[in-house]
Amino acid sequence: MNKSSQMEPVIIVLFGASGDLSARKVIPALYNLHLDGLLPQQYAIVGVARSSLTEETLRERFRQGVDQYSRRGPAKEQEWDAFAEHLHYIQSNYDEPTLYDRLTKLGDTGWETPPNIVFYLATPPNLFTIVIDQLGRFSELQGDIRYRIVIEKPFGHDLHSAKALNQRLLQVFEEKQIYRIDHYLGKETVQNILAFRFGNAMWEPVWNRNFIDHVQITVSEKIGIGRRGQYYDSAGALRDMIQNHLMQLLCLIAMEAPTEFTADQIRNKKVDVMHAIRAINKADVPAFAVRGQYGQGWMDGQPVQAYRCEKDVDINSNTETFAALKLFVDNWRWQGVPFYLRTGKCMPGRVSEISLQFRPVPHHPFAHLNTQVFQPNRLVLQIEPNEGVVLRTQAKEPGMGMKLKPVDMSYCYQDVFHQASPDAYETLLVDIMRNDPGLFMRADQVEAAWSVIDPILEVWSENTELNFPNYQAGQWGPPEAESLVAQDRRTWL
Ligand code: NDP
Ligand code: BG6
Fold first, then answer.
1. Is 25 annotated for ligand binding?
2. How far, in Å, CA of 436 to CA of 275, rounded?
3. I need a surface site. Which of 169, 220, 222, 466 has the fewest CB within 10 A?
4. What is the pTM of this model?
5. Where do the annotations place NADP(+) binding (predicted)?
6. Is 263 in the pocket of ligand 1 (CB under 6 A)?
7. pLDDT (tens digit, 9 = 90+) per residue, 221-279?
């Protein structure tokens, strides 16, 4: 039996089908799943949007998305045609009741096994509740696992709005039907964190405050905000990246071992971490959180305009394009170990990585020989772009005498696994179809993450007398980001 015949038929209703995410991520991912035989034999993708498109023009738009963004490169004619047969389009306003009468009848296909229906909200967040309200007219959806709903980020604007959205969602669906996306969780290297930590016996004894000095989580991007000015200017780096992606990375590093690899066990352990994160008092925010906004600068020898001059951005915007935090996880394992997080746009390099800096050796017998080599051990989990793991150790440099030199022991995905990794969206879409919510955010996880950053958002919104822009495009954020770690006698690694 091939893989696709084992899967239940599915109809994916893609709201916001005319948009950027659909063409750039969702459709290329579905196309690759189609090529890999990971879609069921019977499936349909029904795009919904207001734009006046025909099925033909929608398919053409999706094809361009695949050609440009698929990890496999441009589609081949015959393969594309076979996929395109499954693509359909409904033009409608999102608040049009008759649309939903139609959508909720999509299951009447006459297929031998009735399909599961996945409502995928790839729309701007202000449309989420409009769609949910309309679906709420059909009480038969609630609790029926054949119906699932996928919510893109951002999930709320703060704790209050996230709670309200959860409340509304849970009036229409049950938690088991809800898939809140954080695409970082679908990345191979992010999933590997649990395999690395809990599939190897050697880490657990040193994975704690006794051996680890501090942890750094960096997600720096070279890209700016592209065409997403309207969204980004109301969000900023803290909401866009830290509340979700970086907090999830922190949880994976800090969580306790689950007894079983099940969705709820893992999510429970992550929530425990978030509840253990020390609340930042509003008065302490300046000592624990840094924000920045890029001004004009240079990247790769090209001039880059200031954030405030980007399309759809307020010319006096106080939105941060860089954020750095210092957090503590108050439990037995991590007491006193700072977790430094930073992320930003228009930075000198694209790096997503987690560094665990170990404590120095307790006594150095080589002290009199060479003082500059005393770099403590460091373990770096490289999420992107050079997927792999690096362990920095000290070695004797060949030659007479005893001279130490830092050397890296590393493995690189490309060299070890001779197969292409699926894109995060491919993994997530398969999990949605298989009804496995482990890589998605549960209601309490989202709310716990907002609880951590809400006080910072509040203080930042109150204090608008800023010296923005305070770093140039192409730099590693404002000088205060250096001070955040320097005040603890540390540096960014
Ligand atoms: P778009 O701005 O491209 O919007 C998607 C579609 O929604 C548009 O094509 C448009 O379709 C419709 N739409 C947009 N604005 C309105 C409006 N004011 N009223 C009614 N309809 C509107 O969004 P993206 O595709 O970029 O993002 C979709 C979702 O995915 C968002 O929640 C976003 O935060 C999230 N996301 C996006 C990422 C990205 O890289 N793009 C990355 C991660 C998450 P039409 O006019 O035809 O109805
Ligand atoms: C998205 C953010 O969630 O993640 C974007 O909204 C950001 O601003 C993107 O660019 C980064 O994702 P990745 O997978 O490219 O690291």
1. no
2. 24
3. 466
4. 0.96
5. 50, 153
6. no
7. 999 998 899 999 999 999 999 999 999 999 999 999 999 999 999 999 999 999 999 99
